[in-house]
From TrEMBL, chain A:
Main location, first listed in the record: membrane
Function statement: NDH-1 shuttles electrons from NADH, via FMN and iron-sulfur (Fe-S) centers, to quinones in the respiratory chain. The immediate electron acceptor for the enzyme in this species is believed to be ubiquinone. Couples the redox reaction to proton translocation (for every two electrons transferred, four hydrogen ions are translocated across the cytoplasmic membrane), and thus conserves the redox energy in a proton gradient.
Keyword set, alphabetical order: Cell membrane, Membrane, NAD, Oxidoreductase, Quinone, Translocase, Transmembrane, Transmembrane helix, Transport, Ubiquinone
Signal peptide: none
Membrane topology classification: Multi-pass membrane protein
Top-level EC class: translocase
Membrane-traversing stretches: 24-42, 54-71, 77-100
EC number: 7.1.1.-
Family classification: Belongs to the complex I subunit 4L family.
InterPro entries, alphabetized: NADH_UbQ_OxRdtase_chain4L/K (IPR001133), NUOK/Mnh_C1-like (IPR039428)
Record protein name field: NADH-quinone oxidoreductase subunit K
TrEMBL record, chain B:
Alphabetical keyword list: Membrane, Transmembrane, Transmembrane helix
Locations listed in the record: Endomembrane system; Membrane
Protein name: NADH-quinone oxidoreductase subunit L
Taxonomic lineage of the native organism: Bacteria, Pseudomonadati, Pseudomonadota, Alphaproteobacteria, Acetobacterales
Principal location: membrane
Length: 118, 654
């Protein structure tokens, strides 16, 4: 792996971040694991969607933290894009639930909708 | 000031479109029309001011407006940038002035439609996209406009979406032009990797100075040609344009006759420096152009739907432009583009008035003798028809066709070191095309306007439709007189406008004479066949079977598409749907078991045992693998997470 470039000199920073880079990475990892556990453990489709959003937010947090560390706005731009992605993902998920309702399977149980089983 | 006017010209229709898309409910029918016409009219005003500004400058003056950098990645950069030179000036004038007239016409034509706001929103969006297309100085920016006009075309063909046939026509147009869009993207990628920029000027410069390899130039121009052919409905993509007549008539006039279908011609004329380096591609363009020209003219001869006649005629006239581009006469192609925009818009608008007055009847054999009932529309249609046919002196098409034909005579192709003097052959075929053009359009004129009146047209043509018709009729008659062959008069305003020196070599007078006689003989033949003896030809059953080949062309091309594109996709779909792989696996398993049973019966020995084990293993394995596919999202997520962990572990752990 190529070595990461050093962070900018401290005197250039106008403010100190509340969390250090490592702390935010740990926070993001914890968030990601919570989200993953939610996706794996919950059977309710709504809660699975929410857990997916938590995972996306964890990834977004890493971008923001990296952007803050290297003083680069690209991290926040990526955050905006992930935000849009999360909105789209939620919309598609909700549309699938609505479709199930329209097809006469009014259930939120993720495991009972297994028509694709091999 | 000029740098400010260029974005303004694009913004006016765009803002009108946004207003119409978002707050249509708060606007009255009149308000919708005013917003749409105002947007396009302001844009036309900007273009006229720009024209006055640019024409006062030296001919080589090019106005660049860089709005912003779109993206920069590595050595590649793309900009939202506009460029105004003489070619784009010509195009924006045609687009905004003809577009403005069509908008005024559409205000009356579509007055009673409940979805008027959606119609005008799409139309103004189209004008904005077309302006982006012709003004762009970066090929990626041009591509935005290219896709935008395609989208608007799709939306407007399927405007009356209650009828499934209309949406099918819209989808057909979209899919067929999509093939060209993919080819365009391929050309962009080739050029971008070769030069690192998509600026039109730098592309052409780099290619001319030999920085780009010969093969890349050939491949990129070939892709561009495919893109242009798909947009302009040339062979082999011609099938979508006649079906596109399902849209409202002003749409057919603006998009499928005057502007969008000529975008390909503009692209090739804009990159004429690049195409001059690929003579093989140019020869291909000329040959396909002349083929399309003759095929579409023959097909137009046997159509009975008025709008379809005009659609095939558009394809045929575009063939003329590609023929000219292929022989390097790009100024002739642009001149024909301009006059074609005038007279074809006029013909479509007049046809729209006729269809409206005849009670939405499009079959020319059911609307005889309309000439006496609507003299004004008749005069406009005949003016457009004589311009399309290129009747000498009274039609704009005569001068532009003359420019192309006289340029064709000395044309030569340099192919693989051979010098092929193809000019006279192409000239002869072009002349035949001119004869056919006059024949089919005056067939329509004689059938529609002459003879006994069968239908009783009601109402009057409102002034809102009459005034644009009159303006376009004047432009169709006099628009061609800006450039004349030397034999008639030494007027070369058009070539001077483009900043070219007038042609030095004087074409022989008999070339001009032949170009004038061909449409006249076509007119005479049409009069003999359909004007003088109306009964015989009109009552003849199976009129379309005179030229069986031409009559069956549309069906034959549809069948060809079905064979080449649709059938393989269907087969692939069948394979996927019936899970052929799983079926084969299952069948193999069963066969193995059967064979092993037989072997066991025969030998009851080692081989049988092994085969039995194989069967068991296959079965167990398939059950195990099948269990993974349990259709539960959570388990899929778990598998993905486990795979991710494994991949990360192999990367991170030494």
């Amino acid at each position: 792996m190529p070595p990461l470039p050093p962070p900018p000199v401290a005197s250039q920073a106008l403010w100190a971040p509340a969390l250090s880079f490592n702390e935010s990475l740990v926070l993001a990892a914890v968030l990601f694991c919570i989200g993953l556990a939610g996706v794996l453990a919950r059977r309710n489709l709504m809660f699975m969607l929410m857990s997916l959003d938590i995972m996306l937010n964890a990834a977004a947090l890493v971008f923001v933290a990296a952007g803050a560390r290297w003083h680069d706005a690209a991290g926040q731009v990526m955050f905006l894009m992930i935000l849009a992605l999360a909105a789209v993902e939620t919309a598609v998920g909700l549309a699938i639930i609505l479709c199930l309702h329209a097809r006469g399977r009014p259930t939120l149980d993720g495991d009972s909708n297994n028509l694709l089983q091999g | 000031m000029a740098a400010f006017l260029i974005p303004l010209a694009v913004l006016c229709p765009l803002v009108a479109s946004i207003i119409l898309f978002t707050c249509a409910r708060h606007l009255s029918t009149r308000g919708v029309g005013v917003v749409a016409c105002g947007g396009v009219g302001l844009s036309a005003l900007c273009c006229v001011i720009l024209a006055a500004w640019l024409l006062a400058r030296p001919v080589t003056e090019v106005l660049h407006v860089d709005l912003w950098t779109w993206m920069r990645a590595g050595g590649f950069s793309a900009h939202i940038a506009f460029m105004l030179d003489r070619i784009s000036l010509l195009m924006i004038l045609v687009v905004t002035i003809v577009g403005g007239l069509i908008h005024i016409y559409a205000m009356s034509y579509m007055r009673t439609d409940p979805a008027l706001a959606r119609f005008f929103a799409c139309m103004t969006l189209f004008v904005a996209a077309m302006l982006v297309l012709v003004l762009a100085s970066d090929l990626l920016c041009l591509f935005i406009g290219w896709e935008g006009v395609g989208l608007c075309s799709y939306l407007l063909i399927g405007f009356w979406h209650d009828n499934p046939a209309n949406t099918a026509a819209a989808r057909k147009a979209f899919y067929l032009t999509r093939i060209g869009d993919v080819a365009f993207l391929c050309a962009l990628l080739l050029l971008a990797t070769a030069t690192g920029s998509l600026r039109i000027a730098s592309e052409v410069g780099a290619a001319e100075s030999g920085q780009v390899s010969h093969m890349v130039v050939n491949a990129a121009t070939l892709c561009m040609v495919v893109a242009a052919f798909a947009k302009s409905a040339q062979i082999p993509f011609q099938a979508w344009l006649p079906d596109a007549m399902a849209g409202p008539t002003p749409t057919s006039a603006l998009i499928h006759a005057a502007t969008m279908v000529t975008a390909g011609v503009y692209l090739l004329a804009r990159l004429h420096g690049l195409f001059a380096l690929a003579p093989a591609v140019q020869a291909l363009v000329a040959v396909m152009g002349v083929l399309t020209l003759l095929m579409a003219a023959c097909t137009a001869l046997v159509q009975s739907d008025l709008k379809r006649i005009l659609a095939w005629s558009t394809i045929s006239q575009l063939g003329y432009m590609y023929l000219a581009l292929g022989c390097g006469i790009w100024q002739g192609a642009l001149f024909h583009l301009m006059t074609h925009a005038f007279f074809k818009a006029l013909l479509f608008l007049a046809a729209g008035s006729i269809i409206l007055r005849a009670g939405h009847e499009q079959d020319i054999f059911r609307m005889n003798g309309l000439g006496r009932a609507m003299p004004g529309v008749t005069a406009a249609f005949v003016a457009g028809a004589s311009a399309l046919a290129g009747l000498p002196l009274v039609g704009a098409g005569f001068y532009s066709k003359e420019m192309i034909l006289s340029g064709l005579w000395p044309a030569r192709f340099m192919l693989a070191g051979h010098d092929i003097p193809a000019g006279p052959v192409l000239w002869g075929l072009g002349l035949l095309g001119a004869f056919l053009t006059a024949l089919y359009i005056f067939r329509a004129v004689f059938v529609v306007f002459e003879g006994d009146s069968r239908t009783d047209p009601t109402g009057r043509t409102p002034a809102g439709m009459g005034i644009p018709l009159a303006c376009l009729a004047v432009m169709s008659v006099f628009g061609g007189m800006v450039e004349m062959p030397d034999t008639l008069a030494p007027i070369h305003l058009f070539t001077a406008f483009l900043g070219l020196s007038p042609p030095q070599a004087h074409e022989p007078a008999w070339l001009v004479l032949a170009g004038a006689l061909a449409p006249l003989s076509g007119l005479l033949a049409a009069w003999v066949l359909w004007g003088r003896t109306p009964r015989i030809m009109r009552e003849m059953p199976g009129q379309a079977s005179i030229i069986p080949l031409a009559g069956s062309t549309p069906r034959a091309t549809d069948a060809l598409y079905g064979l080449v594109f649709v059938r393989p996709l269907r087969v692939l779909l069948w394979f996927v749907r019936h899970d052929v792989a799983a079926y084969c696996l299952g069948r193999t398993g069963r066969l193995t078991r059967l064979a092993s049973d037989r072997l066991e019966l025969a030998r009851r020995g080692m081989i049988g045992l092994v085969a039995g084990r194989t069967v068991m293993l296959t079965r167990e394995g398939s059950i195990l693998l099948g269990r993974m596919q349990d259709g539960r999202v959570r388990w899929y997520a778990a598998w993905i997470a486990a795979g991710l962990c494994a991949a990360l572990a192999t990367m991170v752990l030494p």
